[in-house]
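Dear Dr. H.,

I hope your travels went smoothly. While you were away I took the liberty of generating a structure for the chain from your last submission, since the lab meeting agenda had it listed for discussion. I wanted you to have the full record in hand beforehand rather than looking at slides cold. The sequence, exactly as received, is reproduced here:
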Amino acid sequence: MIPPNEIFKKKILIYGLGKSGQASLSYLKHKNLCFVFDDNKKKINKKIKKFYISEINLIKKQFDYIILSPGIDKKNCLLSSYLKKYKKKIITELDVFYKFNPEILTITVTGTNGKSTTCKLLANILKNHDIDVRLTGNFGKPLLQEKNIKKNTVFVVEASSYQLEYSRYFKSKFSMIINISPDHLERHKTMKNYIQSKLKSVIKQKKGDISIIEDNNLIKKEIKKKNIKSKIIFLKKTKYLKFKFKIKNNYLNNPINLQNISYLLELSKYLKLKKNIILKTINNFKPLKFRQEITYKSKNLIVINDSKSTTLSSSAPFLKPNEKTYWILGGLIKKGDNLNLKKKYLKSLNLFIFGKDRFKFLKLFKNRSKIELAENLEEILIMISKKIKKEKNKVTILFSPAAASFDQFKNFEDRGEKFNSLTKKYLLNR
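The corresponding predicted structure, in token form, is as follows:
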């Protein structure tokens, strides 16, 4: 039975046909009168064509709701004026899920760095407690694609600032904001706006719900302005130090992941999870693809593929002093991004910068590290292959771009695959 709610039997426009938009159409087309639109007409295939509405005909229609895909910037798209006029009708896939599944236990994870690893780790921990868990949202399947949902099913939702920004109804029993640093300011414009989008995961919560949030003055300042009913726990970095000393997994033994594990430990108290199962899950956890992934290791060479890195703050914890490191970075630099790293760290680095914004990165690091520039990633790997031959010391090649990938690649996965193929071609097959 479908529970009656505001989104049942309505006239709906789905704007944007990425994973989220397609999942929304598939879920709602039998329950509502659905129409679709996308700025890119190539996405309108035969199956979708019967739902497609042209820009001209769209203006004449009235919709009860507009489901907006997170990748669409409502201020910079073909329907920007239309969306401005009907902004109160904008909802998201998150809202649809909540309205049709209000009783499902949901844990939302948002923040800047390490969301996917944290979500996957949490899902593994719950699974090892014999809980029916679904890993969804920005990592895993879209929420609306999940089938056979039971009353005791738990949803772990990785939520981006883009998804939360447009949400209207969505809320979860537990919400975690694991860390905040400048990101997506090209769209949000200011850190205040960015933080406010993250707080959307908290402000809809009711009494008895729980939010675990980074002990961050910027977040605290914004929270004071909100009428929040849920219990707020500001988590200090020093909490759970004794437990962290027991972690033997080198992949997780870095400042970002260790900090994020603290949130899971705090959450475990309310879910009544067992510490021994948590520790065993952590120590057996395997790295996610393109996230500090060691793709090659020998006596004199380590190659790390961290293509998921899109900000300088996400790369910083893996730049170690007193180690010969070739750091490959570049792409589209994030607005407001900077590297908070001591001079002694920077001096030991050899930077190889590529991509559209390579000269912006050069300006940022000039006179702080050894730097070489190239237009693309292949040129960088050719440069490094020549240098490696002359190296007598152990070298780590860290591919952590600290930038968006869209200048030369489809996404970070495409970028990561390209790096792997190039390292095999120029470094490992010699």
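Two observations you may find useful: The mean pLDDT is 91. The chain is about 35% helix and 20% strand.

With kind regards,
E. W.
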